[in-house]
Amino acid sequence: MNREEAFELLKSHLKNKNLIKHCLAVEACMRTIAAKLGQDVEKWGLAGILHDMDYELTEKLPELHTKETVKILKEYDMDPEIIQAIQAHAGVVPCKTKMDWAIFSIDPLTGLIIAATLMHPNRKLKEIDLGFIKRRYKEKSFARGAKREEIEQIKNIGLDLDEFISICLEAMQGIDKDLGL
User: Fold this and answer.
1) What is the pTM for the complete model shown?
2) Own/partner pairs for 168-171, CB < 8 Å, 24+ apart?
3) 131-145, pLDDT tens digit by residue?
4) How many other C-beta atoms lie within 10 A of the C-beta of residue 8?
C-alpha cells in the first residue's frame, strides 16, 4: 500500500476532519523521526497515517481500538511491523521497536502541540516555538489528555525531550496548511 492509498483508506473510515488532521500530524512526525534515525520513512509514515483509522468505530469501546484497523489492514497484506506499531500506540501490545516507541510518544505530543497552537494569540503553528510548547508542557493542567509520561518515553529511541518536541513541531509546521493552522 502506498501513501495515497493509505490516505484514501483512512478517509473512507474517518469522517471527522480533526481526526484526519491528527493522523496527518502523526504521519508527518513519524516520517521526520524515521528520516532522522535512518529508518524506512514510508513504512513509518503509513503507521502514522493509519494509526487511528478505527477511532470513530471504536470510540465508545476503547478496548477495541486498533483491533478493527488490524482486521482491515490484514486484508491488504500490511507489513507486520506497521500493524505492531499501530497496536503499540494504543498500548494494545508492548512497544518493541523504535517505530513502536516513536508512535507511542508522537500520538500524545501532536495533541499537545495543537492545543498549544490554539491558545496562542495568532493560532498559527509557524508562530510557536520550542519555548512556547515547553511552557505549556510544564503546566500539568494544560492538555491533560497529552500524557507527559507517554511523550517522555521517546527516550527509548535515544531522543531527548527538547529535540523530540522540536522535530515534531517542525514536521507539523511543514504541513500547517493541511492542518488548518
Assistant:
1) 0.96
2) 168/29, 168/32, 168/33, 168/106, 168/109, 168/110, 168/113, 169/113, 169/125, 169/128, 169/129, 169/130, 169/133, 170/32, 171/25, 171/28, 171/29, 171/31, 171/32, 171/33
3) 999 999 999 899 988
4) 10
